[in-house]
Amino acid sequence: MQNGSDSENSPNGGPGGDSGSSRPFPGKHCLVTGAAGFVGSHLCRRLLEKGCRVTGIDCFTDYYEQGLKEKNVSHLLEEPDFKLLRSDIIDIDEIRIEGVDWVFHQAAQAGVRASWGKEFNHYTRHNVLATQRLLEWARRSSLESFVFASSSSVYGDAGKLPMHEEDLPRPMSPYGVTKLAAEHLCNLYHQNFAVPAVSLRYFTVYGPGQRPDMAFHRFIRAIMEGREVIVYGTGEQTRDFTFIEDIVEANLAAASSEQAVGRVYNIGGGSRISVKGVLSILEELAQKPVRVRHEPVQAGDPPHTFADTSRAEEELRFRPQTPLKKGLALMWKSFREG
Fold this sequence. Notes:
Layout: E1 29-33, H1 38-49, E2 53-57, H2 66-74, E3 82-85, E4 102-105, H3 120-139, E5 145-151, H4 174-193, E6 197-202, E7 205-206, H5 215-224, E8 229-232, E9 238-243, H6 244-255, E10 264-267, E11 271-274, H7 275-286, E12 292-295, H8 310-315, H9 324-336
Parallel strand pairs: 1-2, 1-4, 2-3, 4-5, 5-6, 6-10, 7-9, 8-12
Antiparallel strand pairs: 9-11
């Protein structure tokens, strides 16, 4: 894990910032939901490095192979300041969790394409109901911060680019609808019960340990195995890709900032590029041509995403530190090393 942005005067904020409104890290008790997932496991590790005590909670859903989640938390279980609860957030009232300072709500039923049809009940349960139950627990706790992992999927097919937090959300998928509903719940509990909630809208997170259903994981795996890369659509669609370490730093910046409470922030990587552009970079890394098979555009996939991150830059002092080429090289290396 990179620590290049971990200086006391980091542009991503932190305990040594000079804003006058930051909270210190050491000794904080942090609750991380979805701790065995891609973002959650990286976040847990970073919090431990920062001197925090971490309680992780994960119900190990079968959206993808459980063994990958077990691998994600294997190194965490060796840490004395980490505790893993294999539980469903919906049952949080039955779990004894006390003295929490910061909550990082990363747990969710992921996947735009899988959210249609009969699977939607999983999305309402894990994305909406679970968030409401956690917020009910939070209103009875003395929290300093409640950071919710939202998604750029709430914007849908935006009428203009870049996407700004004040733009009208127009989700194109059931998944996006549930993430927006959870955002609204966070705002309601902040307004009515002073839950110190902040929502971060992630723009396409990638990096070592990425979920196997995500594009970069599928692309790299196919290239290394000599198979065709499947691209949905023409490949001209663009995304604002955000490296995992930048997502982690954004969470730390949001939790440690009193100014962030009650706010919504776009968290993008500043690496907007077409799928064709991504494949070109991967060809350089593979040092061979990439074979591509095009399939129809999938329902719910917006043609473009691009984050206006000026609010996060101004209020959280967050700026992404990892260019796409560097991030993809690190991801490629992690695949080669197994």
